[in-house]
Amino acid sequence: MKHTLALKVNGQDYEVSIDPWRTLAWVLREEVGMTGVKMACDTGNCGSCTVLIDGKAVKSCIMLALQAAGKEVTTIEGLATAKGLHPLQQAFIDHFAVQCGFCTPGMILKAKAILDENPNPTEEEIREGLSGNLCRCTGYVKIVEAIMVARDQMKAAKTGKK
Amino acid sequence: MGPFEYFEPLSVKEAVSLLNKYGNKAKVLAGGTDLVSLLKDKTLSPEYVISIGKLTDLDYIKSDGKKGLRIGAMTTIRSIETSKHLKPINCVILCQAASQMASMSIRNVGTLAGNLCNASPSADMAPALLVLGASVKLVSASGERTLTLDEFFVGPGSTAIKPNELLTEIQIPVPPPHTGGSYIKYVTRGGEELALIGVAALLTIGADGVCSAARIALGAVAPTPVRATKTEKLLTGKKIDDTLVKKAAQTASDEASPIDDIRGSAEYRREMLKVFTRDAIKQAAEMAKSAA
């Protein structure tokens, strides 16, 4: 029996009719059209399917879509605003933290979850937080650098000095 | 994955009534980080999946003098990791074990109850809960019962929970004063790797330096997470010094029953178990000294 699933993705309400065994990653890509959600290992190991649910990072390939009912989902498509890219997105571009780009949406969303919880993490805390998100190009150094730059920019923007 | 029918009960009563009806052909879904993986690779193919995700009143960490510490079935590993309530009652070993499990994204979703019901021999929360003397509350349509964790684990992936029962709460007696605990997870690669060895130690040490109570539990070196009872006996009533710790480490290694698998050989596990038992005991003793 199909289930009706109501969920909010990037601030917009969606209602889809799905089989209960569909994963959140699948529904976000195939039903909602957010193809920034990547599926690579599809076993909950690589982190490319990372999205935020009520602000918390989760692996959407090992979660049933129905588990997200009524919750607020953020995908990479939801980060930029009319004013421009999110500081994390800009920092990833400026600091060459992207190679093939497949892990990037998951990396940026994970980084957002890390910074939202702790606006001033150390490099070690950033690395620990990124555990579970794999970059097969092994570009971790640049990724961590970009997140540290975004961290400093976001902190400066908050305190009003630049 | 699938097909299966999906239920989202809104109360424990409704959940156990569904389990009463479909239990043999159903699996309970809490966070799903284990279950959904097992459904996807067809290790499990239940006809019914009963999600307890709507039972948000089972998301709690409560502690009071009489009943001790109680953790609800929908409490995530991340909530335990970040809980400020556990250190003052000498239960910081739970935060320590939680912080070593998988990654933040998994800990945000996976639950303590799910980790126990999945019953992996390498379950990270199990050794810490075993040394704390935890019990689980199992509710069915006809009543409820409480099992100690030693009774709960039966074999790899297998527990004493009946098809019509729902694990609703983990109960933990608050350790006596001057108790320290430590959980060490040994992995070679880091990241989301499963434990090659897990060792938990919980020691109560008086002002005279004598260990009045000792509990040691081991993960990933037996068919289930297990207490190392001979090691515990050896430590109890004695002063913890290097000679005793060395003997205890050897005893733990002797009483474990590891197997060869993809992560390491039985022989390697036995050797390394000595190292980490030694370290866990030393850390627990250190913490017992500074504990209130």
Name some characteristics of this structure.
heterodimer; A: 162 residues; alpha+beta; Ubiquitin-like (UB roll); DNA polymerase, domain 1; five-stranded mixed sheet; globular; B: 292 residues; Uridine Diphospho-n-acetylenolpyruvylglucosamine Reductase, domain 2; Uridine Diphospho-n-acetylenolpyruvylglucosamine Reductase, domain 3; Enolase-like, domain 1; 3 domains; five-stranded antiparallel sheet; four-stranded antiparallel sheet; 11 helices; 14 strands; 25% strand
General description of the model:
Chain A is built from five helices and five strands; from the N terminus they run ββαβββαααα. By secondary structure, chain A is α+β, with helices and mostly antiparallel strands. Chain A folds into two domains: 3-78, Roll (Ubiquitin-like (UB roll)); 87-159, Orthogonal Bundle (DNA polymerase, domain 1). In chain A, strands 2-1-5-3-4 form a five-stranded mixed beta sheet, sandwiched between helices. In chain A, a hairpin with a 2-residue loop joins strand 1 (3-9) and strand 2. The radius of gyration of chain A is 16 Å and the shape is globular. Chain B is α+β, with helices and mostly antiparallel strands. Chain B folds into three domains: 5-51, Uridine Diphospho-n-acetylenolpyruvylglucosamine Reductase, domain 2, CATH 3.30.43.10; 56-172, Uridine Diphospho-n-acetylenolpyruvylglucosamine Reductase, domain 3; 179-290, 2-Layer Sandwich (Enolase-like, domain 1), CATH 3.30.390.50. Chain B has eleven helices and 14 strands. In chain B, the strands form four sheets. In chain B, strands 4-5-10-6-7 form a five-stranded antiparallel beta sheet. In chain B, strands 11-12-13-14 form a four-stranded antiparallel beta sheet. A three-stranded parallel beta sheet of chain B has the order 1-3-2, covered by helices on one side. In chain B, helix 2 links the parallel strand 2 (26-29) and strand 3. The N and C termini of chain B lie far apart (50 Å). The mean pLDDT of chain B is 96. Chain A binds chain B through residues 1, 3, 19-21, 23, 42-45, 47, 50, 53, 56-59, 62-64, 66-67, 110, 113-114, 129, 131-133, and chain B through 1-6, 8, 29, 32-33, 36-37, 39-41, 49, 51, 53, 78, 102-106, 108-109, 190-192.
